[in-house]
Write a structure and sequence with these properties.
It is a single chain. This protein starts with 13 loop residues before the first strand and ends with a helix. The protein is about 35% helix and about 10% strand. The longest helix has 16 residues. A four-stranded parallel beta sheet has the order 1-4-2-3. It contains eight helices and four strands. By secondary structure, it is an alpha/beta fold. Helix 6 crosses helix 7 and helix 7 packs antiparallel against helix 8. It has a single domain, classed as Rossmann fold, CATH 3.40.50.1240. Belongs to the phosphoglycerate mutase family.
């Protein structure tokens, strides 16, 4: 049975869930012949189409006023999610004559992109809990935090304990239940944060399993909407 509930607005948070733009591994999936374990797909970055998708979403969140509302951006520590996050919610080419570490350095990963400012935008926090479901796919293995810090100097990596990726393995296949558990733990953790308006830039599999679990106690129409990622 569905139970109705009311909550005062001051006890609620608004969470904006964003799936990363197209990565090279996504483009490769459209080919009939693909080796998902190829080193070429390791920690796949965004394609040119992916960057176009980022630019379109940035325009939307800016014109809608959403960009000014968001107080924190939580991002999965993988190349494609961080590129999406800083491209959509970062400070763009804003400088105002002030020197500050960029969110992304110029041409990071041969992207051909201009540097992205950390000014005039919310803080960015990398969190392993919203990574993609772990599998044998090389695209889901992250690079070292040392390397990321050179490419994304203004992203906060302080919550990540290990420099190298100790979660991914060539024979590690995470269960759906494990993904759901860390997804729900992440949402529980959000209640410890002071921010009320939070964006999370993450992955399709993570969103699918987490949201479907939350939808189980909802009206069927709401559950169906939550399952669309």
């Amino acid at each position: 049975s569905t139970v109705a509930a009311l909550y005062p607005a001051h006890r609620c948070k608004t969470v904006y869930l964003v799936r990363h733009a197209q990565g090279f591994h996504n483009a490769a999936e459209e080919s009939d012949i693909i080796d998902h374990t190829s080193p070429a797909l390791l920690d796949a970055q965004l394609t040119p189409l992916g960057w176009s998708q980022v630019d379109c979403l940035r325009e939307h969140v800016t014109k809608s006023g959403l960009a000014k509302k968001i107080e924190l951006v939580i991002v999965s520590p993988l190349m494609r999610t961080m590129q999406t996050a800083v491209g959509v919610f970062g400070g763009g080419n804003y400088t105002d004559g002030v020197s500050a570490p960029p969110l992304m350095v110029e041409g990071a990963e041969n992207s051909g992109r201009q540097p992205i400012s950390s000014l005039n935008c919310p803080p960015f926090l990398a969190v392993e809990a919203c990574r993609e479901k772990l599998s044998v796919l090389t695209s889901d293995k992250r690079s070292s935090i040392t390397r990321y810090r050179t490419l994304f100097p203004a992203i906060d990596f302080s919550l990540i304990k290990n420099d190298e990726d100790v979660l991914w393995g060539p024979d590690v296949i995470e269960t759906d239940e494990s993904v759901v558990a860390r997804g729900m733990n992440l949402f529980d953790w959000l209640w410890t944060r002071e921010e009320k308006e939070i964006a999370i830039v993450t992955h399709c599999g993570f969103l699918y399993h987490t949201l479907n679990t939350y939808g189980k106690g909802c009206h069927p129409t709401v559950a169906e909407e939550l399952g669309k990622v």
